[in-house]
Specification:
The complex is a heterodimer of chains A (about 775) and B (about 425). Chain A has about 775 residues and is of the alpha/beta class. Helices cover about 25% and strands about 20% of the residues of chain A. In chain A, the strands form 8 sheets. In chain A, strands 14-13-24-23-22-15-16 form a 7-stranded mixed β-sheet, with helices on both faces. In chain A, strands 28-30-29-32-27-31 form a 6-stranded mixed β-sheet. In chain A, strands 2-1-5-3-4 form a 5-stranded mixed β-sheet, with helices on both faces. In chain A, β10 and β11 form a beta hairpin. Chain A starts with 6 loop residues before the first strand and ends with a strand. The mean pLDDT of chain A is about 95. With about 425 residues, chain B is of the alpha/beta class. Chain B has 3 domains: about 220 residues, NADH-ubiquinone oxidoreductase 51kDa subunit (Rossmann fold), CATH 3.40.50; about 80 residues, Ubiquitin-like (UB roll); about 100 residues, NADH-ubiquinone oxidoreductase 51kDa subunit, iron-sulphur binding domain (de novo design (two linked rop proteins)), CATH 1.20.1440. Helix content of chain B is about 45%, strand content about 15%. Chain B has a 5-stranded mixed β-sheet. In chain B, α5 crosses α7. The longest helix of chain B is centred in the last third of the chain and has 25 residues. The mean pLDDT of chain B is about 95. The chains are: A alpha/beta (about 775), B alpha/beta (about 425). At the A-B interface, α2 of A face α14, α15 and α16 of B.
């Protein structure tokens, strides 16, 4: 809108600037004029049903709802005139007559919109003496507690389901005073964004089940935080009582997460308080772990590092460690004479390292995804892997964009894909090459004859004024990631759209900036010859491994190979949680603070550095990770490791990265031979939404949702018939040297000849990589 | 004084098998539609004639029909719709049912003409579910006859005019008679009124420009065009042209539907209907369906049955459903019954209507049950006032007006009952 299109309206005697098409409430909100409301929410459609925002408009015979009244040039509005106040008080009285006025025992008490507005607009004594309405509750799963008698029927949750979550789970049934918000069919809500209805609900009808009745809102201190599970870096408010993180809610940031967060970001805090937190340093002595004090443990760790020959040390750092931790670990390793450091723990193919850009990123700002006209997802279950980014893609599709995918499973999206190519993993390169061929670009020697679907994708990308080819987590884990990336890069360039990476943790960009990769140092400076990458470190066993924030059996690409390499070497593990495997094999365990317990910085996947403070106390003798690394640096005698604050570390890295800009230009690929070959059975991996890291795997409430992955294996009807397997039958999978048993789930989203068996789930520890040939038999 | 009956929307009524195409055509039916198809009348001429005729919506609101049609962006590209609202559910009202039963072709012709005038080549007739038994089959048979005769469909009678007509049967919800709730229902959603603006003429069925008219309104169109706007306007007084179908019910000797000229004095209507049942005294009349304010007998006896007169008396013409109550009627119980209706039929989306209608009914029930309190009467009025004008659609107003008017005119009956443990003044003091 240009300046000359604005006009002036008068509200309560104040002259306000307004634009055509705006609703009155948008203008009053912007001016800080408080108009009470329940059903209105700026990111949802206008319902105008609560009737709380009624205001007086000059020349209108009746009070009008500010949320649904378009502004008009010169209109005069009175939000506190006798007519407006009477209308607002009238609605308030109606809202309260059937609402249980038992705020002292309601979990929403103290942070309830109805309670707050009632203070200003309600009467002190109810004139309603009839019996109040009682509504039956439904169990809608482990995340959301319901108390539907409190519902005031604002329908925000219903609109959220249809408009944002893309899932019509909650709805209004019945009419009149029997109108009831609930599930059409009672079951657990299966949405990765469901928790947002807790924030939307203006009353205590929908509250957070995991934190139910544990704290009063006025006992909680609110701190800023940044979400630790995916590359978006959703902004959080952390609610803390007596040093304990009690719950997590979104902090508004229009550029990142708007007013929403994913359920993973909201409820993973439960993992902070699991029983298996590492609380004290531990040392292995005569084959047995014992507790040690910090002094002793740090001396032992420093000695181990000094005693090992530099190039024989390898470091595996979580992609969700902070920028400061990545940087200090990098400096420590390099100073010890090793370039064997990597955060790309689940990447399936490193042949493209020489062609890597200096700082791979999303390719666009997060907010720009809403405006894309075409999106091609390659190996991505965006909905579950990066829920808030998927929300943007969904919004773009609502606005008419085309969303297409080439995936190894017919993943469930909350929108209809316009082109959905589902193929066995080993055929993904060929399918993508088909698109490349349709655009007339290099297919890397892969023979590809484009079919109509490939042409459709090519044409859609090409005709989009703005679009992207997005390489997802399954693509990164693919054994031909370097080929997929090179093809995608060629396609994006030819079609004039961006190429994007989503990252596997919360700080992938930070890791690249800090230099937590074997071939680039801080600031993206190339290192020749490079050190060993995450896979090579396991293929060529070293003498000493340092792991940071990692549960090795869950968080690396090939658990079986990891076990062989790390099990045989000395292992210094720094992390927040113990795991059975670490307890058996680690030689030195140092307890490090987890998210919310340490200060630090995450650089999100769009390259935006967001710092945070530690707000919750870690258990036992746990110390912030950056401090542990700093002391180790001091103890091995390194210069310049005298930081007093993590902000000093951050400032040093960011200064070193001043000239490093996000960049997705891919160099020429030398090794173009596909590694993946079709086997009798192919494994389709990936990491389920609630298995990505130690925290989410331990978040009890998330593990009870339909999205949690138990000990199951999925295959389609034909595959089940071929193996003579029924639903829930036992099946044995062998991959490499290892094998494990799983329970069958029949799921026709899985292509023929494949089993869908993720990594980082129970049973997968004994197996190999996420993608590759496996042997499957009835157990 | 004698009045000519069945001049417009029930013009075939005296014929044998009045609902058949042959009968309708014998009475002059489809002549206008054939002229339209032949290009002899332009859309503008149709709209102007309807404007000049003074035809106003007979569904209750009385909005000038020609003006409504003129809101349609006739020449804009894309699909447009004409919809007939046959979800006749206003208590006391039953004239649309008889049009569907006895003169369905007048409606079909009216819809086709309205579609042509507004640029809509698809029409839907939304018929209430309770009409499943007789009116729906009658109407559908008539549509089939019209199709078979080539009067509906594509390239009608070799012309360039298309008009397709579909029947849609509702599920029996009063609220679906509200035009935007009707649209929601027609789209397959729960019948909840939409917030306006935008109005259906710009954003209607499936978001397309749409005109919604009542059954009687549309069925009047062919005769207006056949006999001329002037003729129609002249049947009634200034501002209330034409005839109306009065559904007369209650304490009356000959209840039924009567098509009579607008502006007929109420006392003449009463006489035509045979007077009060059993020769008793007239107590009160709800002159336009249960939603409009009640009028005491003495007040309505001096009224004429048209928009202006009834409005001046403090009520409204509404749907033309005249509910007559004799002096034996307990007004508290009548209001309780009416309030129960609005409580049951509220869609539930707006707070004042969802919560307030039940509150009104419960207070009235308590009063009838002998547990009323003096302060209830003031509270009834205040609750009604807090519903009126505060909701998305007019159901809130419709629930409030009876309460306001019953208390205004019959306060002493309410007071008596509150003070006498639920005993009715009418029965006790006769």
């Amino acid at each position: 809108m240009t300046e000359d299109q604005t006009f002036t309206i008068e509200v309560d005697g104040q002259q306000l600037e307004a634009r055509p098409g705006q609703m009155l409430i948008e203008v009053t909100d912007a001016a800080g004029i408080n108009v009470p409301r329940f059903c209105y929410h700026k990111h949802l459609s206008v319902a105008a049903n609560c009737r709380m925002c009624l205001v007086e408009v000059e020349k209108a015979p009746k009070p009008l709802p500010a949320c649904a009244t378009p502004v008009m040039n010169g209109m005069k509005v009175f939000t506190r005139s006798p007519l407006a106040r009477e209308a607002q008080k009238g609605t308030m009285e109606f809202l309260l007559i059937n609402h249980p006025l038992d705020c002292p025992i309601c979990d929403q008490g103290g942070e309830c919109e109805l309670q707050d507005v009632a203070m200003g607009y309600g009467g002190d004594i109810s004139r309603f003496t009839e019996r109040k309405r009682v509504v039956r509750d439904e169990d809608i799963g482990s995340l959301i507690a319901t108390d539907m008698t409190r519902c005031i029927h604002c329908t925000r949750c219903v609109r959220f389901g249809g408009e944002i979550a893309g899932l019509r789970e909650l709805g209004a049934t019945g009419r009149g005073e029997h109108l009831r918000i609930g599930l059409y069919i009672e079951h657990a809500v299966a949405s990765e964004l469901s928790g947002n209805v807790i924030d939307l609900c203006p009353v205590g009808a929908l509250t957070a089940k995991p934190s139910a009745y544990q704290a009063r809102s006025w006992e909680l201190s609110e701190y800023d935080g940044v979400a630790p599970h995916d590359g978006l870096g959703s902004n959080l408010h952390l609610h803390v009582r007596r040093n304990r993180l009690m719950r997590v809610v979104p902090r508004e940031n229009e550029d990142v997460n708007q007013t929403w967060i994913s359920d993973r970001d909201r409820f993973s805090y439960q993992g902070l308080y699991s029983d298996d937190r590492l609380q004290r340093p531990m040392l292995r002595e005569n084959g047995k772990l014992r507790e040690a004090d910090w002094q002793e443990a740090l001396m032992a760790a420093a000695r181990a590092l000094k005693d090992a020959s530099g190039a024989r040390i390898g470091a595996l750092i979580s992609p969700s460690a902070t920028l400061e931790e990545h940087y200090l670990a990098t400096r420590l390793l390099r100073a010890l004479g090793s370039n064997n450091i990597d955060h790309r723990l689940r990447q399936g193919d490193f042949r493209g390292d020489a062609a890597d850009p200096a700082l791979p990123w999303l390719g666009q700002r997060i907010a720009d995804f809403s405006n894309n006209q075409a999106t091609l997802l390659v190996g991505s279950w965006l909905r579950k892997d990066q829920p808030m980014l998927n929300h943007r893609v969904r919004q773009s599709q609502i606005d008419g964009a085309l969303v297409m995918a080439i995936n190894p499973v017919a993943y469930d999206f909350n929108y209809e894909l316009d082109v959905d190519i589902v193929c066995i993993p080993s055929a993904m390169t060929k399918e993508l090459a088909g698109v490349a061929a349709a655009l007339g670009v290099d297919t890397l020697g892969i023979e590809a004859v484009p079919d109509p679907a490939h042409h459709g994708i090519a044409d859609s990308l090409k005709s989009a004024a703005q679009g992207t080819v997005l390489l997802g987590n399954a693509a990164t884990m693919h054994p031909d990631f370097s080929l997929l990336r090179a093809l995608a890069s060629g396609i994006a360039a030819a079609a004039g759209v961006t190429l994007g990476f989503v990252g596997s943790g919360s700080n992938d960009c930070g890791a690249w900036m800090a230099g937590a990769v074997p071939h680039r140092d801080t600031g993206g400076k190339a290192i020749a010859p490079p050190g060993l990458d995450a896979a090579a470190m396991l293929e060529q066993p070293l003498d000493l491994y340092l792991t940071f924030g990692v549960e090795p059996e869950m968080d690396v690409a090939e658990p079986a190979r990891m076990a062989a390499a790390l099990g045989a070497a000395q292992l210094l593990a720094i992390g927040s949680h113990t795991s059975p495997w670490l307890l058996e094999h680690a030689d030195i365990l140092l307890p490090a603070a987890a998210y919310a317990e340490t200060s630090g910085t995450f650089v999100n996947i769009e390259g935006n550095a967001q710092s945070f403070r530690g707000v919750a106390a870690p258990p036992g003798e746990t110390r912030p990770g950056w401090k542990i690394l700093r002391v180790l640096g001091n103890l091995v005698g390194l210069d310049g490791f005298d930081y007093a604050e993590s902000t000093e570390v951050r400032d040093e890295v960011l200064a070193a990265c001043a000239d490093l800009a996000p960049d997705n230009r891919i160099g020429d690929l030398q090794d173009r031979k596909p590694k993946s070959a079709p086997g009798e059975w192919e494994r389709v991996g990936g990491v389920p939404i609630y298995a990505v890291d130690a925290l989410s795997r331990r978040a009890h409430a998330l593990q009870l949702t339909p999205d949690a992955w138990g000990g199951e294996l999925r295959l389609n009807t034909a595959a089940a018939a071929a193996l003579d397997l029924g639903e829930a039958a036992a099946v044995r999978v062998a991959q490499g040297e290892g094998s494990a048993e799983f329970e069958v789930r029949i799921d026709d989203a899985v292509p023929d000849g494949c089993i869908w068996l993720p990594t980082a789930v129970p049973g997968s520890e004994a197996l190999g990589a996420a993608f590759g040939p496996v042997a499957v038999e009835k157990a | 004084m004698t009045y000519q009956r069945n001049l417009v929307s029930l013009n075939t009524l005296n014929e044998d098998r009045s609902w058949e195409l042959a009968t309708y055509e014998r009475c002059g039916g489809y002549t206008v539609w054939r002229q339209v198809i032949a290009g002899e009348i332009s859309p503008k001429e149709i709209v102007d004639a309807i404007k000049d005729s003074g035809l106003r919506g007979r569904g209750g609101a009385g909005f000038p029909t020609g003006l409504k049609w003129s809101f349609m962006p006739r020449s804009a590209a894309g699909q447009k719709y004409i919809i007939c609202n046959s979800d006749e559910s206003e208590p006391g009202t039953c004239h649309d049912r008889d049009i569907l039963r006895y003169n369905p072709h007048a409606l079909i012709e009216g819809m086709a003409i309205a579609g042509y005038a507004t640029g809509a080549d698809v029409g839907y007739n939304y018929i209430r579910g309770e009409f499943m038994d007789e009116p729906v089959p009658r109407f559908e048979a008539a549509v089939k006859e019209a199709y078979d005769a080539g009067l509906l469909g594509k390239r009608i009678l070799g012309s360039g005019v298309d008009f397709d007509l579909h029947t849609f049967v509702g599920a029996g919800a009063y609220i679906c008679g509200e035009e935007t709730a009707l649209l929601e229902s027609l789209e397959g959603k729960p019948g909840k009124p939409r917030f306006k603006p935008p109005f259906p003429a710009s954003y209607g069925l499936y978001g397309r420009p749409t005109t919604i008219n009542n059954t009687q309104t549309l069925a009047s169109v062919p005769m207006i065009l056949r006999k001329g706007a002037k003729w129609y306007a002249g049947l009634g007084p200034e501002g209330s042209g034409g005839t109306a179908l009065f559904s007369v019910s209650g304490h009356i000797e000959k209840p039924g539907n009567y098509e009579l000229p607008m502006g007929i004095p109420f006392k003449d209507l009463l006489e035509i209907c045979g007077g009060i049942l059993g020769g008793r005294q007239l107590k009160a009349v709800i002159p336009g369906g249960s939603s409009v304010p009640v009028l005491p007998g003495e007040l309505i006896m001096s009224c004429t049955m048209d928009y202006a007169s009834l409005q001046q008396a403090g009520s409204s013409f509404g749907t033309g459903a005249v509910i007559v109550m004799a002096d034996t009627t307990c007004m508290v119980r009548v209001l309780q019954r009416i309030s129960r209706f609005y409580m049951s039929e509220s869609c539930g989306q707006c707070t004042p209507c969802r919560e307030g209608t039940g509150w009104l009914y419960r207070m009235l029930t308590r009063i009838v049950d002998g547990k009323g309190r003096e302060e209830d009467l003031e509270l009834l009025l205040e609750v009604a006032n807090r519903i009126e004008g505060r909701t998305i659609c007019a159901l809130g107003d419709a629930a409030a007006w009876p309460v306001q008017s019953f208390l205004k005119h019959f306060y002493q009956e309410f007071e008596y009952m509150v003070r006498n443990e639920g005993r009715s003044m009418v029965i006790e003091t006769g």
